[in-house]
Amino acid sequence: MDFPQRPTRVDIDLSALRHNLQQVRNFCSVGQGVMAVVKADAYGHGAVAISRVLEEEAVEQFAVASLEEGIELRDAGIKRPILVFGGCYPGQEAEFLHQSLVAAVFSLSDLQRLKQFGEENGTSIPIHLKCDTGMSRVGFLPDEIPCLIDLLKGAAGVEVVGLMSHLACADDTGSTVTRQQIKIFRKILQQLNAAGIHPPSIHLSNSAGLAAWDVPECTLVRSGIVLYGGYPSSEFESRLVLQPVMTFSTRIAQLRTLKAGQGISYGHTYTTQRPTRLATLPVGYADGYNRLLSNAGEVLIRGARAPVVGRVCMDWILVDVTDIDNAEVGDRVVLFGTDGEQSISAEEWGEKLDTINYEVFCRVGPRVPRYFV
Ligand SMILES: Cc1ncc(COP(=O)(O)O)c(C=O)c1O
């Protein structure tokens, strides 16, 4: 584009990403590698740019949710192994092989299909077995393991290169559920080993699991949120020193002074109580500025907080800047991120929106350009 863009933008701090990766590595035991979870466009941060940096930093493997996300990384030249958590749907087998993508397999019927495809094509399809040790989402249940082993015995069409499960309550550092999941995972690993199946990649922990639970048999940790500088829960703020990678910002588009008693935005849900300097910002719910922040959000201008007043619109929000000295059209406005001494975190948004930082990051819309620093 040879014209300036609307000033609403996301800045991605790649040195913060490197710092956070180092934090992850500090928690890994000797010999444990990192599988960087870059699904959902690296939680909204831009999967290609993030993965390029992580590959430079010698991350061992990547994980995405779908074949399409894996292809995007291969097209961008990412060479390391890529695991597709969402598995291989019927008809995708050849593309998985062609792109050197590895599928997580979580049902006997999928396993049979891949095995048959491998045999018919004279090849062996690499797979990670995904076991359900208590998340109750996807995966082989413990009582399916003997059947799974029978299917794998002498199977030429597939090669088990990984074993994985997912923790449901890892962010609760005293969870008995996690203790039980680890026990079940270890038992499954022993059953596979006893049948002569020794997956080189073994992984169970997400970011919270890594920072709170030690499972020495694991050769990899699957880390997502902490790479982006997000805490899995407030319990982790004392365990990890993270740097937020994403800053969401815009600039003041218009400034007016309204008299007291003036209704603002759709539905006039806010009425000025005093002569009010009102700033209009070119960002709205279509950009990921959640409508639930109507009359509830705050932004940073000139290092100070200013409240969102009235309803969030599709492309605009309105902010009371009466108490900000000398606010001007064009001033930078931080929606979340740091400005001087003040910060608004994705966690703060999460609390206001009754959700988690993960969703806050993922919801910053695709029309907001990402700039990589
Ligand atoms: C299977 C699996 N492993 C790992 C992760 C990464 O989790 P986190 O971002 O908490 O590190 C996810 C994220 O949703 C996941 O679905």
Explain this structure to me?
- This protein is α/β, with parallel strands linked by helices and 373 residues long.
- It has 2 domains: 14-230, Alanine racemase (TIM Barrel, Alpha-Beta Barrel); 246-344, Beta Barrel (Lyase, Ornithine Decarboxylase, Chain A, domain 1), CATH 2.40.37.
- The protein is 28% helix and 24% strand.
- The chain is built from 11 helices and 20 strands.
- The protein has helices at residues 14-27, 39-44, 47-56, 67-75, 93-98, 108-120, 145-152, 176-194, 207-212, 346-353, 357-362, and strands at residues 9-12, 33-37, 61-64, 82-84, 101-105, 125-131, 158-165, 201-203, 220-223, 246-251, 254-258, 263-264, 270-271, 276-281, 298-301, 304-307, 317-320, 332-339, 342-344, 370-372.
- The strands form 4 sheets. Strands 8-7-6-5-4-3-2-9 form an 8-stranded parallel sheet. Strands 1, 10, 15, 16, 18, 19 and 20 form a 7-stranded mixed sheet that branches.
- It is elongated, with a radius of gyration of 24 Å.
- Pyridoxal-5'-phosphate binds at residues 37, 85, 166, 206-208, 222-225, 232.
Number of continuous helical runs: 11
CATH class of the largest domain: Alpha Beta
CATH architecture of the largest domain: Alpha-Beta Barrel
Integer average pLDDT = 96
Poorly predicted sequence stretches spanning 5 or more consecutive residues: none
How many beta-strand runs?
A: 20
Ligands present: pyridoxal-5'-phosphate
Largest sheet: 8 strands, parallel
Helical proportion? 25-40%
Which shape, going by the Cα principal axes? elongated
What name goes with the CATH superfamily of the largest domain? Alanine racemase
Relative strand content: 15-25%
Global structural class: alpha/beta
Strand order of the largest sheet: 8-7-6-5-4-3-2-9
Please indicate the count of domains: 2
- Rg for CA atoms: 24 Å
Q: How many angstroms separate the termini?
A: 19 Å
